[in-house]
Amino acid sequence: MNDLKEIIKGRKSVRTYDGQKLSDEHLRLIREFIETITNPFDISVDFVLMDAKKNGLSSPVLSGEPMYAAGKVLKKPYADVAFGYSFEKLVLYAGSLGIGTVWIGGTMKRELFEKAAGLKEGEMMPCVSPLGYPADKRSLKETMMRKGIGADSRIPAEKLFFDGAWGNPLRPDKEMADILEMVRLSPSAVNKQPWRIILNDGMYHFYEKKDKGYVNDATGDLQKIDVGIALCHFCMGLEDAGKNAEISISDPHIEIPGDVEYIASVKIH
Ligand SMILES: Cc1cc2nc3c(=O)[nH]c(=O)nc-3n(C[C@H](O)[C@H](O)[C@H](O)COP(=O)(O)O)c2cc1C
Q1: What CATH number does domain 157-268 carry, 3.40.225.10, 3.40.50.11810, 1.25.40.180, 3.40.109.30?
Q2: How many angstroms separate the alpha carbon of residue 14 from the centre of ligand 1?
Q3: CB distance 176 to ligand 1 below 6 Å
Q4: Global pTM?
Q5: Residue among 12, 13, 154, 227 to mutate when testing ligand 1 (max atoms within 8 A of CB)
Q6: Which of 86, 137, 176, 257 could disulfide-pair with 45, CB 3.0 to 4.6 Å?
Q7: pLDDT tens, position by position, 26-60
Q8: CATH topology of 4-140 equal to that of 157-268?
Q9: Whose CA is nearest to atom 31 of ligand 1?
Q10: What spacing in Å lies between the alpha carbon of 159 and ligand 1's midpoint?
């Protein structure tokens, strides 16, 4: 993807669309890209593209969206993290084409979307996103919503990325600082940014700092999806810098607060 850093910096949730359908060329590129999406957890995410009008799909926070992308995944451990990783790849690719997206996990009539996506027993469809061209101006509703959530702000790096121990700020070199900035700018449910990283023994260990109310049967743990998104930005940033990321799940048992859960570790080659 060209200019990954710029795409990540420039990405903002889009809730106001111009009503136009995607061009045939963009639709073809999106379909082709979807076929290439993988994640490090070997849990496949099945993407479905749905016309909004034909399927009667809408969201109270959106206007003018012509279609939706949904993702389905078998319910199992790490399904939510894998889903976040894979779906974010689509979000960033769409962004590189000038196509707007916004993760939607709550503000929709879930049953309608699950039916249209053909969700089966044992699967979950945690989130969807509209795909369309951004309108020239955000709706008032969207502007108010962004203000309410504080969508333009992020937690400072020293409170997210630690060296050796929880809470000890990491002082990365310029290259790693740029990659961690891509992580910091990730989107997250209600902009909570629940990802934390501890660098220890040469490995970047990813954690989830949990808030209450983000886990349910239909979505899994939305904050694990957020950590999957952060992991996606980290690995794509590393790849962009010409480095290889090796991901493993092996808890280093570093002392962490009670509301924090270990998720995965990244070794850089
Ligand atoms: C897992 C997840 C679920 C989300 N669910 C919703 C939602 O239901 N409705 C909505 O309007 N925004 C939703 N968002 C978008 C976030 O509010 C948004 O990413 C965050 O406020 C940061 O704003 P930005 O994406 O413009 O950087 C969700 C984001 C994520 C990652």
Answers
A1: 3.40.109.30
A2: 10
A3: no
A4: 0.98
A5: 13
A6: 86
A7: 999 999 999 999 999 999 999 999 999 999 999 99
A8: yes
A9: 188
A10: 21
pLDDT tens digits along 56-87: 999 999 999 999 999 999 999 999 999 999 99
Domain ranges of the chain: 4-140, 157-268
Alpha carbon nearest to ligand 1 atom 23, residue: 151
- The closest residue, in CA terms, to atom 13 on ligand 1 is 104
The DSSP code sequence of the chain is -TTHHHHHHH-----BB-SPPPPHHHHHHHHHHHHH---TT----EEEEEETTTTT---TT-BS--EEEEEEEESSTTHHHHHHHHHHHHHHHHHHTT-B---BSSSS-HHHHHHHTT--TTEE---EEEEBPBPSS--HHHHHHHHHHTTT----GGGTEEESSTT-B----HHHHHHHHHHHT---GGG---EEEEEETTEEEEEEE--TT-EETTTEEHHHHHHHHHHHHHHHHHHHTT--EEEE---------TTEEEEEEEEE-
Quick check: CB of 187 below 6 Å from ligand 1? Answer: yes
For a pocket test of ligand 1, which of 14, 62, 190 has the largest count of ligand atoms closer than 8 A to its C-beta?
190
